[in-house]
Amino acid sequence: MNIIKPKEKAHNEYCPMCRTKMEAGKIKRFSDTKIKCPKCDHTAVMEAEKTEALTPREQEIYNMLIDGKTPKEIAYELDITYNTVAAHQKSIYHKLDVQNINEFLTKFRPAGHISVFPAVEQQHQRSKKSLFSAISSLLKRTKKANFINWYKIGDEYSTYNVKIEKEEIDGQLEECVTIFGTMSGYEYAFAGATSCIFPSTLKDMWKMKMFSFKALGDGNKYITSFPTVETTEGNRFNYVFSTVKDQIITVNINIPDDLVRISNSEDKIKFVQKNIYQFNIHALNPGSYSLKFWDIRTSR
Question: Could you write out the three-class secondary structure of the chain?
């Protein structure tokens, strides 16, 4: 393979960008017709020698960038940190003499989008299939919980209300439950809501490993409980979570590991998951409260 000389007539076959690079001696002309410019299919192949300097991991990230993946997506799929991806991306740009993603794709994404590293590409495709399979399996084990109704509950000194309405959140129509009011300073005060659960969801709750929901709160703490037929007013298995004012959070409760027994009696009650019959949620501290929650799910 010979360097094209500046005044060679063959330059006319190439686009201005390729001619400029040839005159500077940065790229070579190959005899193989499938990797010729002409005006302009020079991208990945005409500068292929540069890609040979990439490490195996850089080659893998190279292909994913060619595929249009973002650094965050690459970090997720390869199970590495975002900073690690950024470091590899910087090294790739340096070795390939490009400044940004636009210049990278312009120079190295070939027409027809054929990978420079087919073996790595095949491995990447297998990884994607495994990821999709895992996600599909997880979705089958995660079910949205359905409730017949919600009812307000509280002590005689507190004020408590429940509102149920459909709202569009992040492009999805969700059934949102809002509890609000003022919890008294009474020693045994409580204020919130209890649920009447569909039988199918109840069966899922008997086997769930995780119970989750999204919430928009007011900065206060709230307590959830899963009453069973063994529990009484003085024996509950609870989970406490904090909210951030005007910020959506996801509450994930590992069952039964995250549940804490709170009791006013000496009874040694054990948590029997198959005997859950309700889900309750109420404010933890005295004072005004307001909590909206939705997208309740069980996961096995």
Answer: CCCCCCCCHHHHHCCHHHHHHHHCCCCCCCCCHHHCCCCCCCHHHHCHHHHCCCCHHHHHHHHHHHCCCCHHHHHHHHCCCHHHHHHHHHHHHHHHCCCCHHHHHHHHCCCCCCCCCHHHHHHHHHHHHHHHHHHHHHHHHEEECCEEEEEEEECCCCEEEEEEEEEEECCEEEEEEEEEEEECCCCCCCEEEEEEECHHHHHHHHHCCEEEEEEEECCCEEEEECCECCCCCCEEEEEEEECCECCEEEEEEECCCCCEEEECCCCCCCCCHHHECCCEEEECCCEEEEEEEEEEEEEC
